[in-house]
Amino acid sequence: MSYLSQITSPTLLLDEKICRNNLKKMALKAKFQGKKLVPHFKTSQSHEVGEWAKEYGITEITVSSIKMAEYFCGHGWENIHIAFPFNPLETKKLSELAKNQSLSVQLINEAVTEKLAKDLDYPVGFFIEIDAGYGRTGVEVSDFGLIEAILRKAKSTDKLRFKGFYLHPGHTYYTADKAKIYEESLAALNMLKNKYSTEYPKLVTRLGDTPGCSVMEDFGDVDEIGPGNFVFYDMMQVNLGSCKREDVAVALAVPVVDIKKERKEILIHGGGVHLAKDVLMEPDGSKNFGEVVILNENGWSIPFGRSYLKSISQEHGIIKASDELLAQVKVGDLLGILPVHSCMTADCMGGYLSLNGEKIDHAESI
């Protein structure tokens, strides 16, 4: 039975072949440069995708919350890193999970370090998150006083184990000059490693963002890379030049409920509760909430004439349709939407349907 016959409402499709290809390419890039790939699983949040990743030599993962870490505990990962400034209110939960699973967290201040040093019952690793220009979070790269204060607090216990420095150059999402950002980020991590490796000879440096990891060919002396969105990609990454439309591994299947040919508009059941509300801007200033693809028995194809989702509300979406699309679609058909931000779309939908018609898990489905 075709997977299409199972769909009656918005459904997130996952193309295993494309996803595996994305995993394979990034794993080979890391291996070629002698780096360890520790992907961020906030994008897929899936045990099934995790099993695919293991086939390409991936043994550790990154997550964005302790809830997500708990979801992946007990599934054979050598370590699960929580890449978010640790929330001290979750110390008890962290300690419980650390009893049976190797975990690491990110620290950016003395207060949380002291809390963990005092209250942890089981060992946990930690990275010091570094800010080298993004400005979202982290210790300023030149703030050696704070870095050393965190390290001193951690030394007061055998429950905190320093792993190294973590840097997320997220400003690659906002500029075309990714090479300059990476040059600055790599220089920052290299400086810190040289400064502290005598006292901590096993420390590692990790950086990762999908735009940079997708386009850069030289990661310098960094030890590990940790991109996340690359596993699915999306239209934002296409727009940034990280990938092609053919590399996007997920598409939201949406029912067509009305067509206004005179306005070149198609009304679909699919809105903000399915796609989130991330948006791209078209050259004419109009909004783009996702790009239309044509669903078929083998997945989807990219039409010659572009059609895109020009507006969304909670459940509704309006497509600005090409003449080609208007000529072939009718009420009751299904169309596919390549999301602007696949991480958020997957989180909204809480699960996937494979092209074989099988359900694929997501952390939000439990």
UniProtKB/TrEMBL annotation:
Q: Which GO terms describe its molecular function?
A: D-serine ammonia-lyase activity
Has the keyword Iron been applied to this entry? no
Keywords (alphabetical) are: Lyase
Q: Does the keyword Lyase apply?
A: yes
D-serine dehydratase-like domain spans which residues? 249-356
- A single Pfam family it belongs to is Ala_racemase_N
Against SMART domains, the record matches this protein to: D-ser_dehydrat
Q: Which residues form the signal peptide?
A: none
Q: Could you tell me the Gene Ontology terms of the biological process aspect for this record? A: D-serine catabolic process
Regarding protein family, the annotation reads: Belongs to the DSD1 family.
- What's the protein here called? D-serine deaminase, pyridoxal phosphate-dependent
